[in-house]
Amino acid sequence: MKVITLAVFILCGCATFEPPDSSYTLPEVIYQSSLPPWPFHTDNYWISLTFKIYVAADGSVRNAVIETPTGSRAWDTLALAEVRTWRYSPALMNGQPTALWLRQTLRVHFDKPVYLLLADITCPDQATADSLYALLRAGASFDSLARRHSISISKIRGGMDGEIDIHSFPIHVSKELAVLHAGEISKPLKLGRTYVIYRRVPNDV
Questions:
Q1: How far apart are CA 120 and CA 196, in angstroms?
Q2: How many CB atoms lie within 10 A of CB 45?
Q3: Could you tell me if 24 and 100 are in contact, meaning their C-beta atoms sit under 8 angstroms apart?
């Protein structure tokens, strides 16, 4: 057994609706937990897996089916349980949230989790995020701005999220978080249909 956590999920641009329809707006992944340790010996650094995922109108995953079984029923079962914890921005049909089946092909890299202590300010649009980012760069309190302006539930804690594996975010977000030093903030990052500013909180806080 190769005991390596599957922690990085790079979407290959192969995501389609069942059935495809031009009136839909594609949902975007917001949170994806790591898959179980890979049970087979391999010299590869990644594998490709295809799932059918039922995304509810609120962005939660209500059902999932693996279309490329690995040969390990136990692993497939555990993997599907993790996929059901993922979150998406809702799909839109004519501008309204809707549920649908999504076929998603993932390139899954073998890697170890990287946990950082994070806080966030989640904004409904880029203009708001850019304005708050400018205030933060000018010395404004992250805690105060989060409590006043964030639309995330973390606002009641001054934006504090706790320790999070950065690989649970989409790759464009995890790359930005990976280079943050303690106390630094990220630029506004698009996450689903929101824009998020992250702060790497020093561990001694």
A1: 7
A2: 12
A3: yes
Q: Quick check: is 1 in a domain?
A: no
Our count of domains for the chain comes to 2
Q: Give the pTM.
A: 0.76
Residue 43 and residue 77 in one domain: yes
Q: Which of 142, 129, 130 is nearest to 185 (CA)?
A: 142
**Residue 141 is assigned to a structural domain of this protein:** yes
Domain with 138 in it: 115-200
pLDDT digits (tens, 9 = 90+) for 120-142: 999 999 999 999 999 999 999 99
Token pair of 172 as six digits: 């464009």
Regarding whether 102 and 27 lie in a shared domain, the answer is yes
Q: For 27, phi and psi rounded to 5 degrees?
A: -70, 155
d(CA 151, CA 74): 39
Residue finishing a domain among 110, 142, 168 = 110
59 touches 30 (CB < 8 A): yes
Length of the chain: 205
